[in-house]
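Hey, can you fold this one?
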Amino acid sequence: MTHSPDYRPTAAGVALAARKVAEILPRTPLLPLEVEGRTIWCKAESLQPVGAFKIRGAWHRLTALSETERARGVVGVSSGNHAQGVAWAARRLGIAAAIVMPIDAPAVKLENTRALGAEVILYDRPGGEDRDAVAGRICAARGATLVHAFGDPWVIEGQGSTGTEIAAQMAELGLEAPDQVVAPCGGGGLTAGLALALPDARIVPVEPEGWDDVCRSLAAGEIQRVAADAPPTACDALQTPATWPVNFEIMKARCPFGLVATPAEIRAAQRLAFAKLRLVIEPGGAAALAAVLAGKVDLTDRTAVILSGGNTDAEAFARVLQEDT
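Sure. Predicted structure:
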């Protein structure tokens, strides 16, 4: 399948992605959780084969490549979850994959990406090296296709299949489709995809403290970048410097505001997900639940929350669990 360079993600594209994903992956659970006397619905994307929702966009993108493009390989940029999604899809399709990853990515994400057969190329994120520039040079040298972590139209459509599944699962429970979805947000691939999949729902992106560029962009009406002195964050999956126009065009029309979760709120959400849902959730994957538990979201009877990933080092997760003991 080929598209023009100015292709934009659509609701029809999300529907196609959902059908493609359903052919190869079982649906992740939609789990009830009592919060403030209401039942909210938690989408456990941490239980995907690669431990995160990113497998959806990667599969939709790579299966859309022409035979010529497949032969030339792909290049991804990721702190780890998109990396594993691209590596998984590439191995299944017989496509060579190189992933540009930060030197400070969690060890478990680096190890898992290599184990899936991808070539890992490290860049100096703490030193300010531009991962997109690194990836661009590699693509130019190899003739490979860039599979961006959030700014790729097909990736956005693939991530939107999460919302398609939620609506179907709620219908099976005799419920209407969600009227509100709270989701962790880095570059906005998942947020934009959910907006396309669920046009009647309010989509609420949640970012970690100090990395709230999407929140500020929505407030300003134009794309803002993360501050140069942004603090360190455990939410490596949400550590993006700025969203892209293809994402923001959708988000500014559908997301009335964004929210910020503090490190303490995120750790509390990780502990609650483990205690109540029996799930291991990485810091970035717990951001949306953190905002809900902190009382920052006006809950409805049809609120869904995305638990977007569970790829965390065992030692780091153990420290989070022991914090309140």
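Residues 171 and 177 are 7 Å apart (CA to CA). Let me know if you want another pass with a different chain boundary.
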